[in-house]
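In the laboratory, one determines a bound structure by crystallizing the protein with its ligand and collecting diffraction data. In a computational setting the workflow is compressed into a single prediction: the sequence and the ligand go in, and a structural description comes out. We illustrate the idea with flavin mononucleotide.
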Amino acid sequence: MASIHTDLTRLLGIKYPIIGAPMFLVSYEALTIAVSEAGGLGMFPLPNYRSLVDLEEALKTIRQATQKPIGVNIHLSGKFPWEEQLAICLDMGVSFFITSLGDPGLIIDRVHQKGGAVFADVVSLNQGIRARERGVDGLVAVAAGAGGHGGRIPTIVLVPYLKEQTGLPIVAAGGVSTGPQLASALCMGACGAITGTRLIASDEARVGEDYKKAVIEAGPDGIVVTDRLTGNNASWIAKSIEGVENGPDLRSKKWKTLWSAGQSVAQVEGIRPAGEIIKEMAEECVLAIKKINQVCIA
Ligand SMILES: Cc1cc2nc3c(=O)[nH]c(=O)nc-3n(C[C@H](O)[C@H](O)[C@H](O)COP(=O)(O)O)c2cc1C
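The predicted complex, in structure-token form:
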């Protein structure tokens, strides 16, 4: 299929404006490789690797399987050895960084020197303006309904708002898991979208079958948002946190049994190879744009 060209695909040198979400305890080497090979941008969060040696090994594995662009989510807080992580990533050709927590300005010069780009996760205009002051290349608009730590403003409002008010390239995050949803994000002025929840139900996601099955079975009304588990609002599959959100504390449950997912569980119908999901999203995005063109001229 032909490429879809946007500011994001030109910036990153990828075929489709689709980023495979960095997901804690979900996206590792296999998912990153599959998404990048399919023409999107594969990503993983650095906290998925406990040591710098593990990170280096993972990047070697990825680099042996694909030379396509890849990205990472970096946490710039004192809790992580981000300087060493950054050095390893830049050495191994990681070209895209999404920052969450901390000051994105800390890494921008070093990433730019290597020809890469830095976007910041934001949930509000204030955060977007602060990130712009630090010199980021773009923003990830983390909207309501997203898996993980989501925002409170719907994608359909947040994306055009941030775009208009900051003038920066915006990647939509939250509820974009099909071609028509990607097309609508592009219509709203996004340069691309991150898809997370849908990729949990992929062959390559490193989670148990029970988690994948729960994503398939849940409807959007089976997703709850609470700050009780991490201290910040995050979306969870309700049945996986039963007894935790109101009662006993986290120590009685293991992280692996607390399943985060966003409202786009609504669009997840089965477990499939991630590459197929990305290619289908791109194809159906183009079809959706053609269809809407016909409606407009009819
Ligand atoms: C299980 C899970 C874990 C996540 N972990 C992270 C993370 O570690 N870092 C991060 O930047 N975003 C994380 N996210 C958010 C995603 O990167 C992405 O923004 C979001 O999933 C997009 O919305 P969607 O789930 O509706 O597709 C996570 C999302 C999920 C579902």
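The beta strands are 18-20, 42-45, 70-75, 96-100, 117-122, 138-142, 170-173, 192-195, 223-226, 234-237. Keep in mind that any predicted model is a hypothesis to be tested, not a measurement.
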